[in-house]
């Protein structure tokens, strides 16, 4: 399995920086998420004070931005449980930083890049990856790992675990359209999408 880890991490951080700059340009502040006191994140950058809607009590919101993961994130437990080595690029992708999803545009349209919001979310992500891989094995399909969703409900973007290529696939089916030979190539071609 060919890895482009350093290049990929650099490209992910470059995209995240461009996303934040674009969001600030379009909205005048960092991205906003609803405050959930039971689901804190190192991404949180303080409370966001919005103007009140007509007669409605606004939900408390926070400003956020991607922040480096602390180095404790790893996939050893997944690889041990599945007796499968995950492609180095998918491990680099999901351990580069914590973030809310980052919206982007590629040649195929709009998508949301998935990341973990906090360490508990990373554990939940791993459980979802295990479920996805087990489904692929049960259906006797090649192993892929999802990393992005689209505005079509069952259409995801995934990395082929053997080759590292990026594909479009319907959940439960074989990937059907190749988008890039590597994650680094794919991320380099993305444009942030920060307008409502």
From TrEMBL:
Name this protein carries in UniProt: Protein Syd
A GO term from the CC aspect: cytoplasmic side of plasma membrane
Chief subcellular location: membrane
One Pfam assignment: Syd
Superkingdom as given in the UniProt entry: Bacteria
Matches recorded under InterPro entries: Syd (IPR009948), Syd_sf (IPR038228)
Localization: Cell inner membrane
Similarity annotation: Belongs to the Syd family.
Role summary: Interacts with the SecY protein in vivo. May bind preferentially to an uncomplexed state of SecY, thus functioning either as a chelating agent for excess SecY in the cell or as a regulatory factor that negatively controls the translocase function.
Gene3D superfamilies recorded: Syd protein (3.40.1580.20)
Keywords, sorted A to Z: Cell inner membrane, Cell membrane, Membrane
Organism annotation: Thalassomonas actiniarum
Keyword Metal-binding attached: no
Membrane-topology annotation of the record: Peripheral membrane protein
